[in-house]
Amino acid sequence: MLLLRSVLFNTAFYTDLIVRMIICSPYYFLVPRKAAWRVPKGWAKAVNWLMSKIVGATFEIEGLENIPEGGCIFAPKHQSAWDTFALLPHQRDPVYILKRELTWIPLFGWYIAKQKMIPVNRGARGKVMVEVMKRAQQEMANGRQLIIYPEGTRRAPGDEPQYRYGIARIYRDMQVPVVPVVAHWGLFWGRRKLVKYPGHFKVRILPAIQPGMDPDAFYAHLIKTLETASDQLLIETIEANPNLPLPPTAAKRLAELRAQPVA
Q1: What pLDDT digit, counting tens, does each position of 20-46 carry?
Q2: How many domains does one find in the chain?
Q3: Where in this chain does the record put each Phospholipid/glycerol acyltransferase domain (predicted)?
């Protein structure tokens, strides 16, 4: 049954994406950029609905009040394709730094260009990255929210963290609040996994880290904040979903946390 539901979901997911882009294109490309957000945000809501109705996976969000009014940086833990878009309906005007290859995909790449996303060659250095940061500053000056994954790529739930120092440099240069976000999407929609799992979990938006800290101090504080919250939420998520099959990384981390002495 799990496999059947997963196949049905994957079919519905890609069918909805393709049909929606084709049907909505006239509206999307003719209206102003901010108004055009209705299309991808509507798609994100549809995917969340499909996950709920077909797979049986649902989530709730805590801490929406922690999102600043103006420009800011979202710094989520990254586990799944799901977490790249599921929160779109709750983000006013997000901007992503993304790999340039995505802009080469027919139609999808045009959607990205419409929203003025920031493509980058992952191997780029020097002047190219300076231009990327300049673009990011310009977008956030207009009140947009920059989405950055501090670990750079998807990590399995409970896996050893591998943070990149680039987030500290961006924090130093941008001078805007950083909003840490944790959730264990990967327990329900794993990386490169066909099967999706039912259950209910929380997404926790933590209080913003204000600008002005020393970059090294900020980097250490961000890691501690994210990892502490992620560990706590891992325990909560697994306790709320006792029949959920765990990837080895999550099972190992859970055992480690339960073995720790109670403070």
Answers
A1: 999 999 999 999 999 999 999 999 999
A2: 1
A3: 72-186
